[in-house]
């Protein structure tokens, strides 16, 4: 097995490293969460978030992201203490260079079975980014149902 090397594709993920305040009214209410993102030698990136849900329960999340050169795709996973499903991702950077689109399949929030989802990490500038989640509709379009705002701390 060849040793992984830091590639130009990792630069997008490197922008996430740091400490962030997280706000999403439907998830955090008026109590912002905190997130810390670290790099594993520039190859993998781990984002750990924690805060209080709108129902008053504490929650923790972990997002992992990297670039799989054999697939020419960004890959990752997401787990949260509020659910027992591990989300796995594959995706790519949009032509603007500021948006990473990640695609996954997971439990349908409406009805039974599985649904297709698109999560997008978009940098507004070096100190602000968003994370949006959309579900694929029957006609193939994406319907956004969540937006999380991140502001870099200090």
From TrEMBL:
InterPro entries reported in the protein's UniProt record: DUF1579
Pfam family, one: DUF1579
Protein's recorded name: DUF1579 domain-containing protein
């Amino acid at each position: 097995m060849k040793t992984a090397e830091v590639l130009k594709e990792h630069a997008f993920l490197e922008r996430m490293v740091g400490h962030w305040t997280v706000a999403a009214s439907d998830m955090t209410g008026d109590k912002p969460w905190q997130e810390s993102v670290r790099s594993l030698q520039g190859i993998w990136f781990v984002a750990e978030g924690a805060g209080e849900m709108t129902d008053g329960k504490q929650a923790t999340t972990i997002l992992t992201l990297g670039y799989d050169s054999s697939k020419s795709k960004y890959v990752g996973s997401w787990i949260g203490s509020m659910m027992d499903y591990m989300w796995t991702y594959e995706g790519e950077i949009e032509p603007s260079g500021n948006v990473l689109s990640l695609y996954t399949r997971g439990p349908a929030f409406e009805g039974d079975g599985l649904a297709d989802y698109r999560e997008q990490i978009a940098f507004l500038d070096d100190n602000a980014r968003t994370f949006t989640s959309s579900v694929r509709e029957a006609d193939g379009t994406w319907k956004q149902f969540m937006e999380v705002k991140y502001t870099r701390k200090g």
